[in-house]
Amino acid sequence: MAFRDGPFENLKVPLAWTAAVVVIVGIVGAVMLLLGDSRGQSTPEGYGPARAGFEAGAAPVGGALSAPVRWTGNAVDYVKGYFFAVSENRRLRQQVVELSAWRDDALALKNLNGRYEQMLGVKTEPPVPMVTGLAITDARGPFARSRLLNIGAAKGVRVGNPVLSEHGLVGRIMGASSGHSRMLLLTDVASRTPVLVERTDARAMLTGDGSGSPRMDYVRGAGSIQEGDRILTSGDGGGFPRGLPIGIAAKGVDGSWRVKLFSDRSAIDYVRVLLFQDFSQLADQNALNAPPLASLAAAPPPTPAQAAVIQDVATRRAAAAAATAERVRAANAAPPPAPVATPVAATTAPASTTTRPAAARPTTPQPRPAASRPIAPAPVQPAATPEAEPTPAGAAE
Amino acid sequence: MRRAITVRVVGPLQWIIYPALCAIAVTILLAIPFRLFGLNLPEPVLPMVLAFAWPLIRPSMLAPAVLFGLGLFLDLFWGGPLGLWPLSLMAVYGGVLLASNFMAGQATIVLFALYVASTGMAFFLAYMITTLSLGNAPSILAVMGQVVPTLLLFPLADWLIQRFDDADVRFR
What we know:
Radius of gyration of chain A: 34 Å
Mean pLDDT of chain B: 88
Order of helices and strands of chain A: HHHEEEEEEEEEEEEHHHHH
Number of strands of chain B: 2
CATH topology of the domain at 130-280 in chain A: Thrombin, subunit H
Helix content of chain A: 25-40%
CATH superfamily of the domain at 130-280 in chain A: Rod shape-determining protein MreC, domain 1
Strand order of the largest sheet of chain A: 1-2-5-4-3-12
Strand content of chain A: 15-25%
Number of domains of chain B: 1
Number of helices of chain B: 8
Order of helices and strands of chain B: HEEHHHHHHH
Distance between the termini of chain A: 104 Å
Largest sheet of chain A: 6 strands, antiparallel, barrel
CATH class of the domain at 130-280 in chain A: Mainly Beta
Shape of chain B: globular
Mean pLDDT of chain A: 78
Largest sheet of chain B: 2 strands, antiparallel
Structural class of chain B: mainly alpha
Strand content of chain B: under 5%
Structural class of chain A: alpha+beta
Oligomer: heterodimer
Shape of chain A: extended
Low-confidence stretches of chain A: 341-397
Number of strands of chain A: 12
Largest interface: A-B, 61 and 57 residues
Radius of gyration of chain B: 17 Å
């Protein structure tokens, strides 16, 4: 029996009802998608194949559309550079003069810092490799602020890598496919970045809210931040290296502390992706797993000669310790010294210090050869010889 | 002699597919990282126009399905949470569909008021979903920065309604 011959032959469902059914199914599907989405977690699993596949298709389109804009910008820069070459040259010369003194200071400080690190045995972070990419598309809404980049996992980009423009930190990678990756901007509502105030080393959490200037939450310490303070990444948690420049602190209209981003100074087109994962990346895993540490429990027994040397050293140390204990005991058993007059005590004070080598050190630090190099050397007679250039002692001309 | 009369059939291709493709194209175009005098291009939610106009033109099973796809496109293209804009757009479509009998034939100013209400509802829904899922409320100023360009698209919605609404009582 055909359907039209059945009891439903004359059944007519209003079109609005069928549309409503589709709407309900769509709403249920959307809710399921929302519950299953893990965008804020920034894990490779949260960046599903659907997003990767979609962006593999969208990236060429965005790249083709953004290319004319980029070419136009380059052409405008070229024309401006041609017409304003003289003033630009004059400005750059002035800048070179100003920066020369800073360069000398930087060289002196770098040298001094290197010596301090060597003396203190500080383990510094090695340089992190980076790759350069281009922003293809730009999402600027209140619920999502991200950019699609034309570099991906094929160039070593991974989820969590920090992204910088020429001015400072821009965001981090939230998903990477083979040839493309998506960068979550610092201003995105899902972005959280541990930061520090450069002046006071106070810690805070930079929280994006979809506006141009992200908010600073959990600022620790009263009076630890003021207008104009430079904000850097703190490196807490290992997501970012320490010291990446972010922006300047400023009071928002709502009374909260916000950060004017350095990256807002110009359009974000070319970016650098730091191939930084976390602190464990900076340690040499091979050195940590080297045999001297790994096989301590299975070390072979010492040879008779080594055992004899070890025994000899242990005997000598025990004898020296016993002699020291005997001297201390004899000193404690001796009668206390008779009180002496004050002038005599004053004159004998230096003599008593000779028995305590640690106290014989001067209380005021003496200038050492490394420390004697001035960080910001001042001219000997600035008023008399204003034309004299301050020259660091350690900087060789 | 009788002249041949050209009958122009207005099917789903004209009032659903082509506008949807236009919305996608303009969304991609507005996502270019272009900046002039420190200002970026606006980023309106173009499918909001369709979510408002389609149920007023006539009920259809295809329209909400396409609208769902447009919402998914926005989420994937903008890198937002999957399901945010499908839910908001479907809520607008469902609400207008329910009230279409009362809204049909109203003056333009009334339609604009209803468009403002629909857009406000969609953005409020998106705002609440984002706040609850991330534990961080988006800036109201930033939300207004997207609401206002979306409201300015009302002439497109009105044109769509005037162009394709045939007021056939069989669809009511």
